Amino acid sequence: MRSTAQIKSHPIHPILVAFPIAFFTGTLLFDVLAMLSDKPNFRDGFSVTAYYMSIAGMIGAVLAAIAGFIDYLYTVPPESSAKTRATKHGLLNTTTLILFFIAWLLKRGEHNSYYLITGLELVGFVIMLFAGWLGGTLVYRNQIGVDPRYANAGKWKEERIHTSDKEIEVANTDELKLNQMKLLHINGKRIVLAKTENNYVAFDDRCTHRGGSLAGGAMICGTVQCPWHGSHFDVTTGAVKAGPAKENIATYPVNERGGKVYIVL
Ligand code: FES
């Protein structure tokens, strides 16, 4: 599903994470060199380089975290395996940031210990590697931030609606092409509006297997396929047509009148 923090469909978080990864790695390397060096001039040079790399890494990490947190809140499907994975990813990266920050504070003190500082950075580096692995899974398997195109069905569509109405206007009747979907956030609830050969339909965005976003899948001939493990659902009845999902998805009444499409909740 398309990232919320994006520029022309390019997610900002993966662009920014390269900076803390590079600078924190550099920080550790230069502090190791400083620790191993027996020449005071070299040692001081390595230490100063590591000190400023650490600052750059922390700034990059905070910026990456802001973009990542926006996607965590608004893009990663709620109550899904990806949400659990994204929570671990965020907490581990926060731990890395804290460890490098503590190491940086220690460097500012008068009696700093190379062993303690480098040890903290090494632990932070290893945690960062594991967090990065989880981040890769979120992108390459869970497709967080992927903007899908399929079957001439047009670009990703998404809208947030806050209302107390029971019948909610969600689109113009000519807004979607055949087999195109639109992800709606109605008072925080994720619902997919889709156009079939016969009419408009609405169904829960959440796959009943592990919570994949159906809006990020593919729809054809009245069937939507989950992008994570391939479950098929009938978009009119919500019935499972193929597993691994076993439970049906919820569907919602849709009315069309006066050139507008309405969902009844
Ligand atoms: S989450 Fe597994 S098939 Fe949808």
UniProtKB/TrEMBL annotation:
Domain Rieske: 168-263
PROSITE patterns: RIESKE (PS51296)
Gene3D superfamilies per UniProt: Rieske [2Fe-2S] iron-sulphur domain
Pfam families cross-referenced by the UniProt entry: DUF2231, Rieske
Transmembrane stretches, start-end: 12-30, 50-74, 86-106, 112-134
Sorted UniProt keywords: 2Fe-2S, Iron, Iron-sulfur, Membrane, Metal-binding, Transmembrane, Transmembrane helix
InterPro entries listed in its UniProt record: DUF2231_TM, Rieske_2Fe-2S, Rieske_2Fe-2S_sf
GO-annotated molecular function: 2 iron, 2 sulfur cluster binding; metal ion binding
PANTHER family xrefs: 3-PHENYLPROPIONATE_CINNAMIC ACID DIOXYGENASE FERREDOXIN SUBUNIT, FERREDOXIN-RELATED
Protein name: Rieske 2Fe-2S domain-containing protein
